[in-house]
Structure prediction request, 607 residues.
Amino acid sequence: MTITALPILIPFVLIIILIISRSLVFSKITSIVGSFGLLILSMIIFYKVNKLGFLVLNMAGWKSPYGITLVIDFMSSLMLMVSSVIVFAIAIYAYRSLNEEKQVTKFYVFFFSLIMGVNGAFITGDVFNLYVWFEVMLISSFVLITFGKSKEQLEGGIKYLALNLLGSLFFLAGLGLLYGKTGTLNMAHLADILRNDHQAILMNTSAILFFIAFGIKAAVFPLFFWLPASYHTANITISSLFAGLLTKVGVYAFIRFFTLFFVHDQAFWHQFLLIIAGFTMIIGGMSASVHYDTRKILSYHIISQIGYMIMGLGIYTPLAIAGAIFFTIHNMIAKTNTFIVAGLIYKLKGSFYLKDVGGIIKQNPVLAILFVIPAFALAGVPPISGFFAKFILIKASIDDSHFVIAIIAVLTALLTLYSMIKIWNEAFLKKQPDNEFSGQNTSLSFLDMLPSIILGTISILMGIFAFKVFDFTMQAADQLIEGTSYINNVLNR
Amino acid sequence: MEILLAILVGILYTAGVYMILRRSIVKFIIGIIFLSNATNLLVFLASGVVSGKPVFVGEEPANASQMADPLPQALVLTAIVIGFGIVVFTLALKYKFFELTGTDDLDQLKKTDN
Prediction:
């Protein structure tokens, strides 16, 4: 199945074209067309996976446990599709928001190398290959986060880089120990060995190293400090890209590893993951409520919502995993959208600080609607996607009698709602205070708002057709928990 | 051989942790180099060290367990290259930061935290 490798190859070809390109308009158009191509491709892949169950490609023809294998199952195809939607939206957004000539051509090169890393991480079936894709993603994100070279960005970049480097080292150490114990790094082969192993408790040393590595990438409770220290420093286009994609790759790796082969010692791990999830939710939500910079509030919300995804993994019933996947794809879309809207507020008013701005509802009512959709989606108000995601997770936790985490989840939803209302009151409802920003009267064109409109529409559609989306995520969850079909398909039995 | 390598890995990790806890950014980067080399050696060590029996070279030994495993060597080689790239980027970033602010002190980096 050659189509399996295309999500990596298309960004690669685009990188080469964009390195050569000298014209700004050409780069912008190429990136929009290219990301649209990626979107179409991911839909075709999704359709094929729906029909066949698995797409497996052995690179260079080496048989499965020996060579590098690319595997697309239900979960990978869902993640691929959602990330391509985000990439497409950001490509359109960047068309209007980035304008300095020299900068922009470089931006697109690293934009697509980041996407190549993300797509590679989603479709690989080999642990070391996953490490390599993580590094591709990291190096591009290092370049992007320090893009403007201002003092603040370099400082944020150093913090981001320092902690993520340590994360990669933990990943590599865990991987080495795992190879020493099992003699393989192919995920299906690992699952085959570890699921039938009676001494699997020995795997805890590797599993905890992987936990720390993915915990740093996903920004879970004691390991999240790099995120609020760096995300708000970058250009808002780049922040919205990171908010949607990067931490979720960590969550994806979590779900993949802890459903496919780290299934030993469940009593400890599930309890542990639930405790981590609870702290992540509550601390993220509470930290967000004290801030007045839009980007800071939204950054802390990324953390609190990672908690929900880990919570689904910690409950570990098919319903809960389905809820976690549903929540992940809903969150990727809504989160990117809120950052894009924050960027639009900045464009309109010239400040991210909530005390400086106000009165947008009179000045630009369309923007108010565009903010309400992702904000309600994040808070979990019924007709939009977030409600169903939270409902599934909380139902799964009550079914499995984890009442404490259910209460924390509900409280965090209230905290989210509180922060969203704060942004709404300060930026949209209250009168514009008299300061240097009150004279700003930029208007927004349709093209500025188009990415937000696309993502908002998808959030609403995901709410209206929630049963359809739920069917897909449920299939993905069943496939993950069952495991044997993954093993048999990859190892060709 | 294993014992020696294990002690070396331990020393490198200790030195690396000590260095990344220092206040200077340059020392922090040196710490990262120590840690990444320690991790590379750990991967190499964990997957078994066989001395003097390379694969694909010379006559074939009686069974496969007497040959060195080529895979961890390939893994470590890849990891070393990635590590190099990252260290170079970190140094460039540090240089740019120093040019702008004139400070090498991690305690001065408090502006983006709250």
